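Can anyone check this?
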Amino acid sequence: MMFSSRYEIEIPKVDVLTYLFRSSAIRNNGFIFLDAENPTDGLSKEQLEERVKRLAGGLRRTIGLQENDVVLAFAENSIWYPVIILAAICAGGVFTGANPLYTSMELTRHLRTSGAKCIFTDRQRLDTAVQAANTVGLPKTSIVIVDQSNETKPCGYHGIHDLLDVAFSWEVIHDAEVLADKTAVLNFSSGTTGNPKACMITHRNLVANSEQQLYLHDVACWRSPDSKRTIPRIHCGFLPLYHASKFLTPTFVLY
């Protein structure tokens, strides 16, 4: 016997970037992402979209990313992390995040499972990333360092600012079958029964999950005026952004 929820919502037939950046939400110049260590460093919705498009352009032109290629982030949380996630998708690729505490062997397994063509990492993890890249045969030019614009990079490596190229616009998709089949993110399982497995999360999955969470917010507002039961206007991003729940915070602050 099948049981259905008494609540029904309509899932928009649109790709996740169009959903986030072309929503009906009011657009303003205020920060939607803020660096906790440096409160003067933040991104408005317009600035985020610009960086996403320019980094996507760099991924296509400098890295040579092709449709459905996987981009891997092996770094701590930063103001750049959501940009990397969305830029990978904007460029027509797929994003996957790796635990920043991984050893070289663990990162090698993640690279092989995901088939990643590009690695974003920070200086603290560069040696580990290089070892893993060498093991799977990725060239030095496939590694991008998440650096400050005025920092000197190790010879032969791209810095993330080097990749800010001419803006690349994402493909707008409205076909329901394509949205349900096109992978946007590879989330890795916990590995309870063996090695972590890559879970293919589609555009449709992400938009549906966002709509479900936002609907729960609306229901909470309707049931109780208590703000503790609703989604807060300000989120503290304390979870590592490689985690499966990482996409919910960008959704709330953008939508």
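Reply from J.R.: I decoded it. The chain has eight helices and nine strands.
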